Amino acid sequence: MDTNTLAIYIHELRNQCLHTEAAFNLFNQAMNNRAGPGVLFASQMVLMPSSQLAALLWPTRARSRGRGEALRKVLQLQEKHPLNDRRLAELWERTDQKTEEWVSSTKGEQVVFDYVGDLANLGDGKTPIECLYRAYNTQNRTFYYQGVGYNFQAIADAISDVAGRVNAVYRQLFPELAKQEDEERAKAQAAQQAAQQQAAAAQTGQTTGPTADQTTEAPAPAEKPADKKPAAKKAAAKKPAAKKAPAKKPAAKKPAAKKAPAKK
Predict the structure, then answer these.
(1) pTM of the prediction?
(2) Can you give the pLDDT at residue 206?
């Protein structure tokens, strides 16, 4: 493999590693927010670049195996590797046919779509893996797609291993570009840290205000009943009943003294 061809493949491998990292970040955010649809979306996004990496480095087609061997030699990757999974490498090939095959194979069975949680809590806890169309098991960190399970911890570790090797070769092939990216990354991290410090300082300044509880939403509803106590003060505010001074209007009936005309 000539240097120019190698540079193209290394650049693409690096991009796929970065894409996988971005997908895992989305996945973690969705898990932290307990957003089921987000977890399932990010899970499929994890598998897409992972499948590309597997296919590039461990191709299943005979005519492409020479390319895979050459890349693995440069990266010093062993044949036995978690990413060397034919199911993963061919995951997105013939997707429509695979869906038809899955539908036919599970006919008459109770199937599961879009589930996130402990599979032990699903139905009677004995749902066959083959009947899982799309699900993420939070107990063993495994994502199931069309009856096949993919251990995300194993994939994350495997991608991390490949990414380290790819980046090392990338720096040799593109030293100036790698240096520029390092500088930009350092600037971005410095800006992020400065923003975090400003945010922390702003929060500290807010705590010197009325109460620190104002930063949380929970106490707010509790304070509303206390606000209703002024309603009791409104009753006291009815002291304007002292404005029964209008009751002095009867005193204004002194014009009744005008009955003086009766003295005629």
Answers:
(1) 0.70
(2) 60
